[in-house]
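Task 17 of the worksheet. Students: predict the tertiary structure of the chain below and write it out as structure tokens. Keep your answer in the requested format; marks are given for formatting as well as content.
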Amino acid sequence: MSERDARRVGMRDVARAAGVSAQTVSRVINDHASIRPETRRRVLEAMAALGYRVNNAARALGTDRSHVLGVLASDATLFGPGAGIAALERAAREAGRWVTTAYADAADPDSVDAAVRHLLDQSVDGILLVAQRIDTVARLERDAAVPVLALHQGTALQADAAALAVAHLAELGHRRIARIGGPDGWIEEGARAEGFENAASAHGITVTDRWSGDWSAASGAAVAGAVADAIGRADGPTAVAVANDQMALGLMSALSAAGRGIPSDISVVGFDDNPDAAHYRPALTSVRVDISGEARRCVAVVLDAAVPTAIDAPVLAARASTAPPTR
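Model answer:
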């Protein structure tokens, strides 16, 4: 039996396979002294054959549900994942569930598998993924013993927000723009890149350059030299869309240190609209999505509940880092 089938195995299934009552199975699980060795052996063999996972959180209540959701995240030090984790915890509480969180290196399958095993050992009713790779999501959907869903999976919110950033630059008069994306293979990067490229094409904008980072401010600073060189070309970009605010911060800091003006030499727009964005120098233009509404949708889907429809459209906060082009 596969792990996915095992999520439907309950105490009554084990009792039927072992030829005993559900009460006897419960006594075996709780190591009751009155159980005969032969009966214990049959129950344990049935549990192993069926792939039954002991639900420590639920067994005292006599149910097969723990009312706990697992969250698998890659890095809570970045604003996006941190905000996602917090939103999922709030949404779970609203749904009457607790949350347990495990962290793993999203680029390391062994690290991810160990974190998933940790969550499954706590008998979670489902796993919500934050900042994970597309291939990781597909593998866990196939192999995990409980429902699995990634934050932002299957929605157009990220793409729509990226398109909003491009539309803002187009309205300001920019016709040559560049992009700094996140690492390849991530759910968020794929959606944001798609929204950016489609919007650029729709607005007749030329994408002059494409770079990538790892979501950190340091990686934004690392491409600043290439961005400065591109600005100096006659056909270089007059604006750059960055896949998150932290990379935008690193880029702006490094460009300013190199003597480049923002937005006089190049406009910069970020993504996430983190609470610090208004305090960057210059204040960063950024787009944000309704992370709370998205989290409620994810929790509802994993719990097979009615899916809420009240998810707000993306919003652009226009600030001092963007202006009409001067070149």
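Marker's comment: The two ends are 65 Å apart (CA to CA). The chain has three domains: 3-54, 68-150, 157-289+313-317.
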